[in-house]
Design a protein that fits this description.
The chain is α/β, with parallel strands linked by helices. It is about 20% helix and about 20% strand. Helix 4 crosses helix 5.
Length: about 230
Amino acid sequence: MPGAIIYRGPSRIDGKPIVAIAVWDSSNGKTGDMLQTYILREDIDPRDANKYGEDYSICGDCSLKGTPTLDPDKKLAEERKCYVVLGQGPTTVYKVLKRGGYPDLSNAGDRRMIGAGRMVRIGTYGDGAATPDDVWEDLLFGAKGHTAYSHNGGDPTTYMVSADSLAQAAKAWQRSERTFRVVKDRHEIVKGQEIECPASKGVQCINCGLCAGTSVQAKSIAIVVHGSGAKYF
């Protein structure tokens, strides 16, 4: 089996049906072979969920998901900035889910076993704050470390605050929270408060682990915009 369902139930954001799926192996060159987790609408293809705004259940108020549209010529939301390529990982995981390819290992003991000894990526796609906190508490119980980001009020001890502007980041810093921010140019990075994401210099997330909220004592992280949606910044 390529992975397992670690949560199935209502979204904490809007109550609609979602699943969280852990995928064992990853060939992602940026992150390295971390345990990847996808939070998806259980009932809608990720591409359609994005196009029609139904991804609110798993992305909440994230500004990167674009503007919903009914235009039949559009495959995704308009001006989508998110770097996640929906036609790849999320769609592949969704298709396996629909084929019944993931067993349900959503009890606490199984989740702890799944995360044990691994570096865990919370929200390879989707915001972990859409699921109950105990899902990730179990998964991280014996993990080596993790990365996590939230636009929707995830616990700052676990999540980096995804800041869409310097003003948002500054408010988080006043609360002693760490942020992850996308910038147009590295000159926008605030010296003394932020560092450029080590991935920009070829360091894999599995060997870095700085994006773990206030559980890590480090400066906030900023990265220069990248991916197919960069043109909309």
